[in-house]
Amino acid sequence: MLQARVETAAARPQFRTSLARNVVEVRAAQRLRYQVFAEEMGAQVPGREQGIDCDIYDAYCDHLIVTHTGSGEVVGTYRLLNGRQARRAGGFYSDREFDLSALDALRDDAVEAGRACVRADYRNGPVLSMLWLGITDYMERRGYEYLMGCASMSLADGGVQASQIYHALAAAHLSPPEYRVVPRLAWPLKPGGSDAGCGSLPALLKGYRKLGAYVCGVPAWDPDFNTADLFLLLPMSRLDQRYIRRRTRH
Question: Inter-axis angle of helices 127-142 and 203-211, to 10 degrees?
Fold first, then answer.
């Protein structure tokens, strides 16, 4: 069982990071996902009639959760799909957005992280960093070599900022050619220099960047969420543990 505890200096709430142990905890994670993705972002998600976000991959995933120990509420979640389980599910979720054939040799040594969300009133605290710490502990304890997943960029402004972010990240963090993937439905990037965009990185992308992840090519368009999604790959040999351990102490 993965577990970490953090106390803030103010109201001193405590948080616990763990893998969901039963269907009740999985449902709590799915309800949180619905609140964030459907209610906040307006995304079209499966399970809407039940007030949850769920799909066929959930049954094959380990669900990482951060629980507020005072209230017992799940305030952050990330789901983890390893290569063996992905084969049973018919592939990784990212296979739906990208042609990942360039990474076929890595699949058995990889874990896909997805459906990340943190409740709105906890986004300025340690919860996201605790999720990152839980993921890296999971990877290290189970011996996986590659962490991968998609990170979304808003298209609310027509894609101007998403294009700036991509150009800025690609200038410094583009993967070696052997890790490049191809979007199944590409988002048409707008021209932009590499000196803009990094100051406005979404929290998830900022975390991937600080941990040492590669950007594996141009973004795909996700019409259900109306986002431009980047595929990220983090070889554990590149992991910068100092970032997440420093963040969880704040």
Answer: 40
Reading the block at residue 117, the tokens are 């969300």
Q: What CATH number labels 5-247? A: 3.40.630.30
Q: pLDDT (tens digit, 9 = 90+) per residue, 133-150? A: 999 999 999 999 999 999
3-state DSSP call for residue 128? helix
The answer to whether residues 170 and 131 touch, using CB atoms and an 8 Å cutoff, is no
pLDDT digits (tens, 9 = 90+) for 154-170: 999 999 999 999 999 99
Q: Where are the domains of the chain?
A: 5-247
> CA–CA separation, 105 vs 103, rounded Å?
5
pTM above 0.85, yes or no: yes
DSSP 218: S
Please give the helix or strand (H or E) that residue 118 lies within, else none: strand 110-118
